[in-house]
Amino acid sequence: MAHPRQTPLPPGSTIGVFGSGQLGRMLAIEARRMGYRIHTFSPERNSPTGQIADFEYAAAYDDTAAVRSFIRGVDALTFEFENVPSLVAETAEDEGVPVRPSGPILHAAQNRQREKSLLSQAGLPVTPHRFVTDTSELKEAVNEIGFPAILKTAAFGYDGKGQTRIERDTRLDSAWNSLGRQPCVLEAFVNFERELSIVAARGQNGDFAAYPLVENRHVNHILDVTIAPADEEPAVTQEAERLACQLCDFLELTGVLCIEFFCLPDTSADKDPTASESQSTGRLLINEIAPRPHNSGHWTIEGAVTSQFEQQLRTVSGLAPGSTDQLRPAVMLNLLGDLWQNGEPDWQALLAFSNVKLHLYGKHEPRPGRKMGHLTVTAATTAEALEMGLQARAALQRD
Ligand code: AMP
């Protein structure tokens, strides 16, 4: 997965981003602040990224000629979602334009089976699972994994899409049909205490930097609130950072990466006071990884010295990561399209909260479940930030 070292790209250089959603938009905002140029490629026009970018290229991801012409106009390439066809990385290689993170990392992150195999190879803790390609394999896997379990399509799925829960009385062929009879991963249902994540970055010279571990609360499988930092014991936070470093090194990553964890309840009644800090607590299981900035890292825009988007820009440009020090306790709350169901949200009521920072992504259609924006609140404590954030978000709701 190694790619040749290249001279870092200074301000004035052009970064190409495949995908044109909110992650690309926030990258473009940071890039513009720092004097870089951003070109974005996706089938959409007037997209969240395109509204900020210097240049918006609207074409299909598999349009070979368009992909090549886009790549010729940039100094380095990155992406803001994983499901970019392999054609992109191949064309970039052909044109001598660095792709960061590299094509093989992108390829692994596109598929749960490849991702799980890679994490196991790297010696990292993953949820017990089996790969299944037909109903007879599913029956066998269910016998081994037990109930409840979660069946997830191996290919493209996010925010709980492409998955179904399997209970003792679930008809396996119906479950299999409901996911479109395609290769899947069957995972044991984890009775986690909390969901946590860590965003980390690695520069092309191997410098590693991780943000504090955060807690994520989901509603209907979609991230609702991130609390930074997570209120976890030091052994867990150190372990998360160690696992992130191990994964970044294993992948020889140049870029930003997020690991989502399930944190298991602490069952060690009597902790061994002589146990070394570097020993595994056995409480962290990796649910998913994303080789890019992540929704659970948005708080870094206001809450850290370097935002995760500046970090992406730095690493993609071949520069060393910036400081990941946290400035203040922070909470991020997502704004979903549901907030628009009774008309335009009450922005005036929200902006009466002097400490709340509003981010809107410039999306035209506020569909239920669609991420339209987010709020960040920083305060003296995470509890205070959370209380204020929840009040502010509630003020947006029209009756
Ligand atoms: P995913 O799309 O795999 O990130 O899943 C979305 C959400 O579903 C996770 O953030 C969890 O809240 C829940 N979930 C996914 N897999 C499992 C599992 N094996 N056990 C328990 N909950 C899960």
Quickly describe the structure.
Strands 9, 10, 11, 12, 13, 14, 15, 16 and 17 form a nine-stranded antiparallel beta sheet that branches. A four-stranded parallel beta sheet has the order 3-2-1-4, with helices on both faces. With 399 residues, it is α+β, with helices and mostly antiparallel strands. The protein contains twelve helices and 17 strands.
Model description:
It is a single chain. With 399 residues, the protein is an alpha+beta fold. The chain folds into three domains: 14-99, Rossmann fold; 128-188, ATP-grasp fold, A domain (Dna Ligase, domain 1, 2-Layer Sandwich); 194-396, ATP-grasp fold, B domain (D-amino Acid Aminotransferase, Chain A, domain 1), CATH 3.30.470.20. It has twelve helices and 17 strands. The chain has helices spanning 22-33, 64-72, 86-95, 103-109, 112-121, 135-145, 172-178, 234-251, 300-303, 308-316, 347-351, 382-396, and strands spanning 14-18, 37-42, 55-58, 76-79, 129-132, 149-153, 163-166, 184-188, 194-202, 208-210, 214-219, 222-228, 255-263, 284-290, 330-336, 356-360, 371-378. Strands 9, 10, 11, 12, 13, 14, 15, 16 and 17 form a nine-stranded antiparallel beta sheet that branches. Strands 3-2-1-4 form a four-stranded parallel beta sheet, with helices on both faces. Strands 5-8-6-7 form a four-stranded antiparallel beta sheet, with helices on one face. Helix 1 packs across helix 10 (308-316) and helix 2 crosses helix 3. The protein is globular, with a radius of gyration of 21 Å. The N and C termini lie far apart (53 Å). The mean pLDDT is 94. Adenosine monophosphate is lined by residues 127, 150, 157-158, 160, 187, 189-190, 195, 218, 221, 287-288.
